[in-house]
Structure formats: structure tokens, C-alpha cells
Amino acid sequence: MSDTENLKGYERPAHHGPRPTTIANPGALGLFSFASTTFILSLYNVNARHITTPNVVLGMAIFCGGLAQLLAGMWEFPRGNVFGATAFTSYGAFWMSYAVILIPGFGVASAYSSTEEFDQAIGIYLVTWFVLTVMLLIGALRRNVSFIALLFFLAITFLLLGIGAWTGKVAINKAGGGFGILTAWIAYYCGLSELLVKGESWFTLPLGGIRQERID
């Protein structure tokens, strides 16, 4: 009997979780980076301490929310975690692209003929990220409660900020900032849960795992 015949009827076993690897879990790095950058910008969006110019967040957006999250996503790929790799890489790219918009040298804002046109373009940009976040939310529905909450409130944040940019209403933009602060603290909780490894920490934090049926 040939090797080809021997392989007939053989089905490759499905992987239902991260594959064994020596790469450390980058989840805490990605979540903390996302949370910190989101927290700072959201405080600016609610005009905390009367701040209306968000440019101080540029460094965080490029290196923390951007580069660190991007690296976390790249490390998730060899671990076999498609969801984590997609989420971290996507939001790392989001923060880098957001920084590019704010940096005058790139000429993004100055390319528009009016502030109103620029705001409409920003609205489309933010609503696009709302759509992507909803897709990730769908992918998280069978993972755990904490990630579902994180992506749900993040989606609301993007939607409100997008509507705020379109309408020019400060109250809606501030509401988006408020939901962003809530999102950041949920991300901090998730990051701390990833950091507190069982057997190496005094306690752990539950993520609210969702029971899944076994597939043989």
C-alpha cells in the first residue's frame, strides 16, 4: 500500500487553543499599552484639566499604543493565537495611524480645505474602526466576558467619537471620552489578569471564561 493510500481518511487534528511555544505571553504588554494610551487620550476628550489639544499623546500613540502593541501582535502569531494577533496588530496600527494624523509634518490635516471637511474625514476614519471592533467583538463572543465587555465599550467609544466628529457636538465627543476611560480600565483589568500567572502570583483575576462544548 502506498504512502498516499495510507494517508487517506487521515484528518489533521484541529487546534482549539494556542499551540505549545517557548514565547512568553505578550497579552499583558498589548493590553497595558492599549489601556494606557486609550486612558490618556480619553481624558483629553473629556477636557480633563481643561486640556483641548491632544498632542501630548503622540509619543504614547507611536511607541506604546503603536509599536508595543504591534510587537505583541507579532508575538501572538507564532503562539497560534489568531484573535490576539489580529487585535493587537490592528490596534497597534490604529495608534500609529492616529499619530500620523496629528503630526504636522505629514500634512494630513493641512491637506483639507476646511476644518469641517477634515472633521468629516475623521468621522469616517473612526466609524471604520467601529466596524472593525464590532467584527472582533463577534469573534470574542465565545472567549470570555472581560474581552466581550472590552470590545463592546470600545465599539461604543469609536461610534460616539465618529458621530461627534460628524456633528461637531462637544457633548457627544465627551461621551465618547467617558466610554474610552471605561474601556481603558477594563483593558487594565484584562492585562493584569494576563500578568498574574497561577503559581507565580499571590492571586489571580478571573476573565469570566465561557464554557465551550468539546469537539472531537
Write the layout of secondary structure elements.
Elements: H1 3-7, H2 27-45, H3 58-76, H4 82-102, H5 115-139, H6 145-167, H7 170-195
Helix pairs in contact: 2-3, 2-4, 2-7, 3-4, 5-6, 6-7
How would you describe this structure in keywords?
single chain, 216 residues, mainly alpha, 0% strand, disordered N terminus
Describe the protein in words.
There is one protein chain. This protein is an all-alpha fold and 216 residues long. Helix content is 64%, strand content 0%. The protein contains 7 helices and no strands. It is globular and about 55 Å long.
Short précis:
By secondary structure, this protein is mainly α. The chain is built from seven helices and no strands. It is globular, with a radius of gyration of 20 Å.
Spatial extent as radius of gyration: 20 Å
The percent range for helix content is: 55-70%
- What's the rounded overall pLDDT mean? 90
Oligomer: single chain
Strand content: under 5%
Q: Spans of 5+ residues with little confidence (pLDDT < 50)?
A: 1-13
Q: What is the 3D shape?
A: globular
Structural class: mainly alpha
Count of distinct strands: 0
